[in-house]
Each structure stands twice: as structure tokens, then as C-alpha cells.
Amino acid sequence: MLRWRKELLEDLIRQSEQPMDGPVNPALSRWINKAKAYARDELNIEELKKRTRGNCCPDIEAGLVIDKKLNELDGLIKEGHQKFQAKGYRQPEINIIGNAVEQLKCDIWQRVSQVEGAGTICIHGIAGVGKTAIAAAINNQALSAPDELFDFVIWVSVSDLADLWRVQEDISAVIAEKLPADPNTVNRAGKLRAALTGKKKFLLILDSMWQGYSPCDIGIPELTGGRKLIVTSRLRSVLDSMGGNKPFVIKPLTNDDAWTLFKHELGTDNLSKLSSEILITRTKNAIQDLQGVPLAIKNLAQTLKNICQKNPRTPIDAEWKEELDCLSRSATFLENRNRELFSSLQSSYQNLRAETRPCYLFCALYPTAHPIETKELIDYWMWEGLLGSGTLTDMRSNGRRRLNELLDAGFLENASEVGEEVKVKMLNLIRDMALAVAGEQLFVQAGDTFPSGSAWPEAVVRASFMRNQLRALKLRGSYSFNSISTLLLQDNSFDMNHDSDFFDGMTNLKVLDLSHTNISSLPNSLSNLTNLRALLLRNCLNKLNDLPSLSNLKRLNVLDFSGTQLEQWPEGLQMLKNIRRLDLTQCKLDIFPASCVCDYRQLEELLMIGDINSSGCVWGSNKLRDWNEACVEWLPDLGHLAVLELVFLNASVFKSYMKSCPKSTDHYPHPATRFKFFVGGFHSAGVDSNLYENSITMIGDGSIVLPQGTLVLNLMKCKDDVTSLKMAGCFRDLTVLDVFEFDGLTYLLTLDMLHSLGNLRKIRVRRCKNMVGIIQPAEAKGTVISHSSLAELVLFDLKCLDSVCDRQVLNCKRLTRIEVWRCPLLGLPKLVGTGPIEIKGEREWWDTFQQRNPGIFEGYPIRFKEAPVPPEVSSSPRVISLDRRTPNYPIISSNHPPVLHQSAGIVDGAAESKLLRNVEKAIGKTAPHKVVDVAKTFIRLYDSVSRLPCPADRGIQEKLDLPVPKKDKKKKLDPPHYIMWFSSSLARSSKIITEIRTRNVPYL
Fold it and tell me: I need a surface site. Which of 170, 326, 665, 757 has the fewest CB within 10 A?
């Protein structure tokens, strides 16, 4: 307390010595001399300690001495304020460089100088970006303003990490109002409020706030009648709690402004001492690496200026080159040459919650300026154990809170482009600070050669070699890294042999990422990673054909093969009882041991929407005859499922799944809170960004049961005989309805269906050749069709469509966009109760519509915009339908010639059909599951055939006929003989296909 009061006195002395307008105050000069002498002679803390030594009651003696000094100090400080009745104190001004920053200062002053309007002005920015400089400029401008604007300008530098009591004390010390020592901040706030109210019109500036409190709790009176409050902080949450409007954000300088600031701080004469243009270019690059942080740029300029002062007459190129080399070792430069900024960043780091700090340090594993996908980052934290325990959903929520804390503190910033998943990035200086704090615990290295074991720090906990040109995993020696828990190796080539014992010395490894590599095999020592929690092998370019047994990885929580082709399923899967996330999205997998899933009783996330050329991830039902693959009846036994992405054989199987789900009080419950379902097939778009969370894609059927929480419904490729939608279940959450090639429909929705979809926001209809209207008209003419949520209507390639709602009046108050392409007959309805609407489409259609309906939109803010058809609207995905009766066999839909279609014994197609009939005769009555592998081989072969146009050479077509093995009338040929015959037939067919492709046969 004594030391802090001494600092207040010294601060008051400094402010009193600053130049003021008007004559010199002799009383103030005498007080300054008196205060300086007292601070020098009477407040020697060490001398006070010595004075109490040897006393029989040193604690009592020390207490009496300190109380006496505190009273003397309080009296001296109060006297100083009485002698110095100024409007306020000027603050040291810092040069503000850059048009953007100068404009920001003008905008802030405009807000401050308005008598009416917002009373609280907030300024936000990262450490060293210039918040205090802007606030100081506003402070000094307010002091120079006419007296009628402000009676007092009060500047308060808030103590680091100050609590509410200390913030009140900081303000009271500046305004010379002694508050009671009462720990009750409410009482102190009342006393402070009364003191500030007496100041009438004031500008109060709280610089560098670390904790958020409401002005009322602090003791700041109502900000009206010319009272203003400016708050600066690195933390957005602090500013939000202070009650201000959108804060002014100070952004880093541009490269040009940064160079201008550097030259200004360095001086033209000193810059001319650099004789090498190459060295000047390196200096510019070094400044760019500081990413526009003014404090860092000034410190760099000061470093060069010091070199110039030491060598006033000699070239400084050599010394400056050495300093730039030091700068390239950024952590060293930040800590040793940039102490002020490093100290400031450390304060921000210490202000983070203890559990958030390791999450921040983890971010430094990513390369400089690398956009970081937040979903991936949070998952890393989770698998590392940084997010505590609980369900994956709970831990991800905790991770998002920590991510927001880092964003709030300025350690991360948004790096997402429009339409992208959420990404963040770290400024170089922020990353450098993390590396400096972590020390040897983080090992990050770039290059094309894997570092030898001797180059690794002994205490390394996390290592990252992502996004390099590494070719093989070789340590070149036997080493032990028992402390390492994370190894990130993604985005490398890895196309050479590896040390088989590479992982032997990493017994505590928890997270291993080998995604986006060319790896085709893994070292056998992978089997020894008994503490591994996450094995990530996403989007590996080569087929993984040599995987060691995973049976020893009993603690494995996540297994991710998404986008990777597997030659065979790894051994030991049945031993992984602790799997919580299994991701086979877009995995090229023909055979999946579905029975393993039943053993994963801890499973929370199951993602199995496979590749379009894969047939191993389809779910059927145990009610189907001869179905020996994954059954939906198993899923309810997995009681922890929260995320589910599956392909169901058909609508009947999906209904069986819904019936098997546990019952709840809600209508049509669903155990998974997030899901993506394909029913009856899947398409080439897979699970891309167009497939939203909680979406259902129905292929070949118009009958669907919507589970609770369904947001998006896609209906595709329905036959002509399906003339209406039959939707049951929970409609309340549906927001998007997308219909594609539903040829049997004449109207999309009835009025009753439309009204039941109360939250529907978007309707998109494409290529429905018989559709004449979107909403079936009511019997009574002139009916007003109302919907409170519909905002967007997209119509494409609907040749027969002539009306949205049979030209009845449409009242959709949220409707803002209508997009129309290739709908030549369409007439738009009369609109009432809507706001501004943008209509996009072809100019010819719009002109024709206006000629036919003059004045239909008169008085409404309608804007037409001519635009080409967006790719996402015009694209026609390749759709795979699944046969209803023999579920092992997929067929290719009407976009391509059918390959295999066994529906009531009917076979479609031309040359392929002939071959198929022969195959059917050969297989006879053999159960489908006994020849499933052969059938899948057949499918793959004729998938390639189907992409060839029909050959004009009928002789080649005839060659596709295969001989049928003769069956013994008394004995049916057993399956192995069928397989032998089938294999030889396929071999022959392959030669024929090659011949077709190489003979340059003319095609129709």
C-alpha cells in the first residue's frame, strides 16, 4: 500500500510539471519541490525496514511507522490536487502514422465532442497497436477544446489486472477523492459517484482495462449532459460489459504505413547509412513480418538507430545484417530486443485463464500466417486432453469458449473468407511469444528432411512438421521421446520407406496426424502406441495397403479414414472398445466389418457416408431377406450417439430405424443432435458444404419421416409414378426444401403442407419436367397465401411451370430474393406485405413477363438483376440409387446407362443387359450375399463401361455376350465354380472394353 501511494505521488508530480496554459502558479511550484523532497528523503522503503529491526515488537513498530507515512502521503496528495486545480493533465503524444488511423482518431473525436449521443466510447486492439496513443491524442485535444465542452478531463491508467476495488482507487487518486478503505465496493461506488457528479461535464478516460465492470458498479454517474467515458482494452468482452456501442477497432498498419513509420522513427540520415539495396529490401521484409504493429516497428527502428549512433562514420551493413538475422529467430528478438512489447504480451498471456493458456500455446504448432480451421483446432485440444472430460459435445462447447477467449484477447483473429468454414490465424508476434513462452516444449521445423533424433529438444511435448516436403519418417538413430504427446505430420509427401521402429520411443503419444500425405503404409511400431487417443489419416492420396494391427491401441478415441482408400480393413478393430469417433466419410471402402460397430459402446460420432464408387457403407435392416451387412436395429444399442451420418438402403429401412429409436416426449425423437442422412442412395456431391447439418437426402422416393431437428430436406430422382410428397414427422424445424428431378409432381406443396412448415426459409426446385405450380391453389379464387418465414425462392429448368401459386396473392413478409432460370412460362404472383425484393434471372424472361403483366409490381421495391445461372444451381450431381430388393447392388441412375438393376427380374440397358442376363442365369438361385464380392467387381467394371457412349459398331456389342456355363440338371453349380466362371468372364470383358477404347470406334 505504501509503495503504491508513493507511485501515485510521483505520478502527480510528473503531471504537475507538465506545461499548462496561463501563468505559472508559485504555490504549485513550492508544492512540487516539497513533494519531491518528501519522496526522496522520507519514503525510502528499505530505510523504513531497517528502522524497525532490533525492536522488541518489530511488526507493531513497522505498522505504526507505515500508518504515519500513509497519512502524511494522503495529506500531501490532497494538497497537491488543491494547489493544481487544472482542467486535466496532458499525456505524452505519440506520432500517429497512416490515413486509416488518422481517420479513426477523427471519428472518435466526433463521437466524443457530441453533447448528445452515446456516452461510452470503446477502443479495441491488440497489444502495441496504438490504443493508448489514440486515447492520449483525444485527451490532449479535449484539454485544448473550449471550456464549455468539458469542465474536467480525467485520465486514469488502470493498474494491471486491477479488480473493481483497485479501479475505484485509481480513479479516486486522480480526482483527489479519498475513498473509505471498506472492502464493500458498493459503498465506495456511491462516494465516487458523488465526487464525479460534482465535476459536472467531464471526459473520463480509463486506459488499458483488463476486467469488465458496468459504469454503475464502478461509481461512474449516468453519462448524460456532456459526460463522456472512453475505455481502451485488448479484450472485447471488457468493452461489451462497459455498455458501449460497437467499439472502434484499431487495426495494424499497412505495409506502406509501416515503412513510413519505420523511416520516421529511424531518421532519413540513419537510413542512408545502409549502402546495400539488398539489405534495405531485407529490412522491408522484416518490417512486413512485424505485421503492422507500431510498437514492434518502433523498437526495430530504435535498434537500428542505436547501431548508427555507435558507428557515426562507418558503414553499418554488417552489424545490421547480424541484427536482421537475430530478428529471423523471432522469439529471441521479441524477448531480447522488444522487451516492452514482450512484457505487454506477457501481461495479456497471464490474464488468460490457466486452462486457456496451453490452448494458446498449441496454436503455435501451425506455420506462420497459416489459416487454422477452428473445428480441427478444437479437436486437437480435445484429443490432447486440454478440454477436460465429458461428452465430445460438451468438450467442443468448452473449446469454443476458449477459442472465443483467445479471439477476445487478440491472440487469434478471424481469417475466414466468405462461404468458408470458420478459420483463425495468429499474428507473427503473437506466435513468436507463444514459442518463447513454451521453450523446448514445442518443436516446430520446416524443410524437406525429417530432423534427426539428436536435433529434437529433450523436453519436447508437441512437435509439428506440417506443410513441408518431408519424404520419409526416419530419425537416423535410436532415440526416446517419452514426453511427446502430439505429432503433426500432415501435408507432406511421404512416398518412401520408413523406419519400422520410428514410433518405438514415443510411448506417450496421444495425437498422430498423417492426413493429406502420400503414405501407403505405416511403420509396424505404430502398434506400440498404447496411449494413442487420435489416429488421423484423412485424404491420403495413395491407397493404404499395409496397415499394422491396431489391437494394442485400446485407448484410441478417434479413428479417421475420411477421404482415404483402404485396400483392406485394419486388423484388431474389435479390440478398440473406447472408440468415440469413427469417420469413414468419402472413404473408398468396399467391405466394412459392420459387426465391429456394435462393440463400440462408447461411440458418440459415427460418420459413414462413403465414396460414390463404394458400396461398403450402406445400412439395411435385419428384416430384409439375406441381408448380412450393417443393420439399423443395432444403432439404438449405441446409447451415446450424438453425431450420425449414414446411407440407408431405402425409405423402408429408414422408417425401421426411426421406429427403433428410443421414445421420448417429443414427436418423432432422434438420439443424434447432429445428423446427415442419405436414403435410397447417394450422389457425387457427397457431404460437401452444400449439405448442411441435420439434412436428409431422399433419392427415388417421395415418402419420408422427418425426425426432430431436421433442417434441410433434399428430394432427388423420383419416378414419374410418385405424384405427391408424403411427409410425416416433425416439420417445425425444417428451413430448406430442395427438390431435384421429381418428375411426377405437378405441384410441390399443398396449402396445408406450406402452413405446417412454419420455419421454412428457402425453396429450391430444379428440373421437374411436369411441375406447373409451386403451391397448389385454393378452391376460392383471390385467396391470399401467407407465410411468415419464407425468404428465398429458386426455380431452375422448369419448362411447364407457369405459376408460383396459380397467380393468387402471396404475402411473405420476409421474402427478399427470387431466382428464375429456364422457366419460360412462369408468371410471378402479386405480392403484398413484403419489403425490398431482388429478382435474378434472364433478361428475356423478365421482359416477357413485364409485357404480359404490366404494373403488377407497381408501388413495390422490386429490383431485377440479370445474372447467369450459378454453378450450384445448374450442376447435375451423379446420383447412385440403391436397389430396393437386392440391397447389395447399386445402380447408376438415369444420368448414365444403368449397370445392374434387379427389380422383379427386370433388367434395363442394352449391351450391359445381355451380359447381366447371362450372369443371372449363371448365378441362378444362389443367395446374393454369397456372391456379393463378385457382384461388386462386376459393378466396378461396368461403372467404367457405362461412361462410354453406345458404340455404333454392333459387332463389338455382340462381343459383350458371355457364354453361360452349363448346369448339371441333377446338381446345381456351387458358388465357388460360379466365382471362377465369373472371374474369367470379367477378364474377357475387360479386354473388350480396352479394345473399344483403343480402336477409335465412332460413337452415336
Answer: 665
